[in-house]
Write a structure and sequence with these properties.
Number of helices: 9
Number of domains: 1
Strand content: under 5%
Number of strands: 0
Shape: globular
Order of helices and strands: HHHHHHHHH
Oligomer: single chain
Length: about 220
């Protein structure tokens, strides 16, 4: 197996695991706020099989990882369905459920930075893997905050601009096409690079402080 394929598969498995936590966070927060729809659909689990979206978890990430001339990664899980009629405070609870996904990725960054820092103190060779986990979750945080359906940021946007359900549904019907076009535009990656790198650098620095290893060992080449 070539080094590029091995590296690509490592990134892919990190992505699938991180997406599973992301979607589980949506499901568990909705359940705690009174909506049992995710529970009834079997989404209160960390099992990746329950959260895989054929396009967003399989085709798009693998295509982007292994397409000739490039190495990038983006993806999403099967959206967690909720019934906002079950929420006590519709707007607040919808925002909480939507932000639970990116927040879970932020917590993964924090957790892996701390635990990984301790591990790297004794196993310095683990530093690049810690960096990979951080960068994948940083990407998921930034990507999911884009205000385009079905991404999490679109739920916040719709409440800020007071978009009604019919208009949001119409917007959502074009969301996938817009996303495919967007991720193929160079300016998107230029815009996304700064917040992704900020998150990567911040948590890599935390790991470096804990481990005593140079921060460059955590940063993906």
């Amino acid at each position: 197996m070539s080094n590029d394929i091995r590296e690509g598969l490592i990134y892919y498995f990190i992505l699938v695991a991180s997406l599973s936590v992301h979607e589980w966070a949506h499901a568990i927060s909705a359940d705690k706020l009174g909506d049992d729809t995710p529970r009834n659909q079997g989404r209160l689990t960390l099992n990746p099989i329950s959260h895989i979206d054929p396009i967003g978890t399989v085709f798009i990430p693998l295509f982007m990882l292994f397409m000739p001339g490039g190495f990038s990664l983006i993806g999403w899980g099967k959206p967690v369905q909720v019934d906002m009629r079950n929420f006590k405070q519709k707007v607040r609870d919808d925002i909480i459920v939507s932000m639970a996904g990116p927040f879970s990725n932020l917590m993964i960054c924090l957790g892996i930075a701390i635990v990984g820092g301790v591990i790297v103190r004794f196993v310095p060779q683990a530093a690049p893997l810690i960096g990979k986990v951080i960068v994948v979750n940083a990407l998921l945080i930034v990507f999911n905050m884009i205000p385009i359906p079905p991404l999490d940021g679109s739920h916040v946007m719709r409440h800020i601009v007071k978009m009604n359900d019919e208009t949001y549904a119409q917007f959502s019907s074009y969301g996938f096409i817009i996303l495919i076009v967007l991720i193929n535009l160079p300016f998107f990656w230029k815009f996304a690079f700064m917040p992704i790198y900020f998150i990567l650098f911040t948590f890599s620095a935390l790991s470096a402080i804990i481990s005593g290893v140079n921060i460059s060992q955590f940063l993906p080449m």
